[in-house]
Structure formats: C-alpha cells, structure tokens
C-alpha cells in the first residue's frame, strides 16, 4: 500500500510538471529538469506508463480545444486523436526504465537513450511534443549544443542525487548543480537577443476560413500579391508569409504570380509564401500527397532554393494517410531545412516543427553554414479562444531561438475570435 501511495504521489507530481512546464509561460519550462529524477523513482513499468501519460495529458491540455475546432465539433474524434498521441509518447519512457538504478553512468545512459528515442525515432519524433530537452533554452541561452549537454548533465545529476548514498558522490553532485546554477544565472543576466536582419518583415494576417473554391482562392492570391507589393514598396527586401496561406500551388498558381515574380526581381526582393505544393504530388490508395512548403518568389540569385519543404507535418491536420489529401513526411539527410536568403542562412521550421526536436537539431547540426535566423511560419487561423496553443507554440520556438542565439521571425495567421482579447502592437490585415 505504501508503494502504491508513493507511485501515485510521484505520478501526480509528474503530471504537475507537465502542466506547469508547458502551460505556465516561458518560466514554467524550468521545472522540466526534474522529470528524469521522478521517472526513475517509480516502482514498475506500469506506473511509468501511467505517470508519463499523465505528464503528456497535462502538458497538452490545450490541444483538445484546438482539435475540437479542427474536427468541426466532433468530440469523439477529438478525444481519440488527443489520447492516442499521448499514449504513444508515454510508451517511449517505458523501454529503458529500470528500478533501483544507482550508478551515475547507468542513469545517464538510460536518460540519453530515452531522450534520443523520443527525439529521433519514429513515431515519437513525429509526435514529439513535450520533450523536456526543450527547456535547455531557458537554462543556458546562447550556448547551443553545449547548453543541451549541460541541461542533460543537470537532469542526470539531479536524478543521481535522489538515489546516491555515497558522501563523495553527493558532494560532487551538489557541486555540479551549483556550478550549473551559477552559469545559468550568469547567462540569464548577460544574454541579449539578436536583432532582426535589416529589410526583413513578417506579414501576420487575420483569416477566418480557408476558401478552396476557384473564385475564393483566386481572390486570396490577388490580396496576397498586393500585400507583397506593398511591403516591397515600403523598402523590405525579404517578405515572409504564414504557413499554407496561398493554399494549393501548382503550375497554374506559379503563372498567376509571374507579375509579382518580375516585380520582386526588379526590386532585388524575395518573397517566401506558404503553400501546399502539388508540383510533384502523386496518389496512392486514393490519397493525394503534397508537400507543406514555402516557395521562393523573386530574385533567384538571392536564394539557394526555390522551395523549402516541411520535414515533419502536423499529424492528422496535415499528415493523414487515410484522408483524401495528406502532406508528406520529408525527413532525409538532404533536407536539412536551411536556405540561403540574401547571404543569410535561415533555418525554416514550418508550424508544428517548432514543437519537435528532430528538425531543429538537424538544421543546427549542419557542418557548414550554421543558421543565422529561424523562420517559423505558422497557420493558426483555425484555432479559436480560449485555446492557448498559439502561445505555447510561440514559447517553445522562442526557447530554440534563445538556445542558439539567433533571431526569430514568425509570420502567422490568426482568427478574429482568437485575437479579440489580444493586444497587438500593429493592426493585422484581414484576408478572405
């Protein structure tokens, strides 16, 4: 009975970490460093699964609000999608767990293996919200991969202190945590965010529904073209639009944008436009596959690529092999998500990718041309109040920007309902 009470108590604390860490703003991420220590205190794999399921359910409590709107009020599909994702993620903590892990090296190996599975192994890497390593950007800003290692060291050391009975070992562990804490305070006091490159602008928009009929899509393209021309006339050289704002992109849409292509070319400007790229689409078993992508319009000599495809599309919303249309998963060594724009190397994280670990690590692991900026286009037009999912996504991608000390630019579409009680520094343009 005492063991059951202990497991249940730990499970409640772990769920609390999930709730606070992912829903209490940027400072809430600080508590995630305790997760491995509590994980190793559980007494069986059954309780590990239940505790981590509670963690993910609490961490993603805002998802059902957004999913309910996406599924147009279908409560059963909403709950099924939400719980299925959390059940899968919770199993990732079960495999390498072991009771009474007492050696530091053993703890480190099990934590490293579990973190690695959740970050890089499908299906966990494709669903990878809630990964505790994200908090490295809070503790060690500007340190990049060194910060990831230091955060991992802190997590493992805290877990070791929970079980260590050796005085010398405890003394070394406390010293390690003290040094890391001092380094965290120093970095937090001295870190300064990098400024945005001159001449870059993100076009945030209000969109209350994506019209797919020909007339509505045509009118939306004309509105987007006029917005692009306006920004170029204002002197901007790199104009960034939100995810999938232009809808389907084929040879027809490409020809429709030819006048803007020439205008941007003549003014030495580049436009990045969010599309559903069907130029290389194909059909299998009734499903038409496309790429969730950003196409480059304008001066070709200013960019290293004409299309940047998302590597990890959002499950169900974008990637759904059982639907009529589905985005492709584009993870490969040749698609690192980086692009050269006007001499600046950009890491492009399309919407959901900012919540996962794999795309970020891949982009910043490039041997040459380390990214100088993160471009994170997002489409939040289908999310209504009171969901806080857009703020959670923004906080998460801000931590990656903070960790690698690069500026972040995030063109986003919002719904009118979501913005009712939000304060904006500048008015947004509404399009149909």
Properties at a glance:
432 residues; alpha/beta; Nitrilase/N-carbamoyl-D-aminoacid amidohydrolase; 2 domains; four-stranded parallel β-sheet; 15 helices; 15 strands; globular
Question: Quick gist of this model?
Answer:
Helix 6 (104-120) crosses helix 9 (145-163) and helix 9 (145-163) runs antiparallel to helix 10 (167-190).
Could you explain how this protein is built, in words?
The mean pLDDT is 89. The strands form 3 sheets. Strands 1, 3, 4, 5, 6, 7 and 8 form a 7-stranded mixed beta sheet that branches. The chain has a 4-stranded parallel beta sheet with strand order 12-14-2-15, with no helix packed on it. It folds into 2 domains: 2-190; 200-430, Nitrilase/N-carbamoyl-D-aminoacid amidohydrolase (4-Layer Sandwich). Helix 1 (2-23) runs parallel beside helix 3 (45-59). It is of the alpha/beta class and 432 residues long. A hairpin with a 2-residue loop joins strand 5 (270-284) and strand 6. It has helices spanning 2-23, 35-39, 45-59, 63-70, 75-91, 104-120, 124-127, 136-139, 145-163, 167-190, 214-233, 251-256, 258-266, 358-364, 389-403; strands at residues 200-202, 205-206, 238-240, 248-249, 270-284, 287-298, 307-309, 325-327, 338-341, 344-348, 373-375, 378-379, 408-409, 412-414, 429-430. The longest helix has 24 residues, at 167-190. The protein is built from 15 helices and 15 strands.
């Amino acid at each position: 009975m005492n063991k059951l009470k202990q497991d249940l108590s730990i499970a409640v604390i772990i769920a609390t970490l999930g709730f606070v860490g992912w829903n209490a703003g940027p400072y809430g991420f600080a508590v995630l460093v305790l997760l491995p220590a509590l994980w190793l205190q559980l007494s069986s794999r059954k309780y590990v699964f239940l505790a981590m399921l509670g963690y993910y359910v609490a961490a993603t409590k805002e998802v059902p609000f957004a999913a309910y709107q996406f599924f147009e009020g279908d409560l059963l599909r909403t709950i099924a999608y939400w719980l299925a994702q959390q059940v899968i993620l919770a199993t990732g903590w079960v495999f390498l767990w072991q009771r009474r892990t007492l050696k530091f090296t053993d703890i480190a190996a099990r934590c490293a293996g579990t973190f690695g599975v959740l970050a890089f192994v499908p299906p966990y890497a494709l669903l990878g919200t809630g990964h505790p390593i994200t908090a490295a950007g809070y503790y060690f800003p500007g340190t990049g991969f060194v910060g990831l290692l230091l955060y991992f060291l802190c997590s493992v050391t805290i877990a070791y202190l929970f079980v260590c009975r050796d005085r010398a070992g405890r003394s070394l562990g406390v010293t390690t945590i003290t040094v890391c804490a001092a380094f965290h305070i120093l970095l937090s006091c001295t870190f300064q965010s990098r400024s945005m490159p001159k001449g870059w602008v993100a076009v945030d928009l209000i969109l209350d529904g994506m019209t797919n009929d020909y007339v509505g899509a045509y009118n939306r393209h004309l509105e987007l073209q006029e917005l692009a021309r306006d920004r170029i006339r204002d002197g901007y050289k790199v104009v960034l639009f939100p995810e999938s704002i232009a809808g389907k992109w084929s040879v027809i849409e490409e020809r429709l944008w030819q006048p803007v292509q020439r205008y941007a070319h003549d003014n030495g400007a580049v436009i990045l436009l969010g599309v559903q790229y069907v130029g290389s689409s194909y059909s299998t078993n009734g499903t038409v596959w496309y790429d969730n992508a950003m196409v480059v319009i304008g001066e070709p000599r200013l960019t290293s690529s004409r299309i940047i495809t998302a590597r990890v599309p959002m499950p169900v919303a974008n990637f759904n092999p059982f639907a009529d249309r589905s985005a492709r998963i584009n993870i490969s060594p040749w698609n690192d998500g980086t692009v050269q724009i006007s001499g600046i190397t950009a890491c492009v994280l399309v919407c959901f990718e900012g919540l996962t670990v794999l795309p970020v690590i891949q982009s910043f692991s490039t041997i040459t041309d380390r990214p100088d900026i993160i471009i994170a286009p997002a489409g939040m037009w289908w999310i209504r109040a009171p969901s806080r999912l857009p703020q959670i996504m923004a906080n998460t991608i801000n931590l990656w920007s903070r960790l690698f000390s690069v500026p972040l630019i995030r063109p986003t579409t919002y719904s009118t309902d979501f913005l009712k009680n939000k304060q904006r520094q500048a008015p947004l343009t509404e399009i149909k």
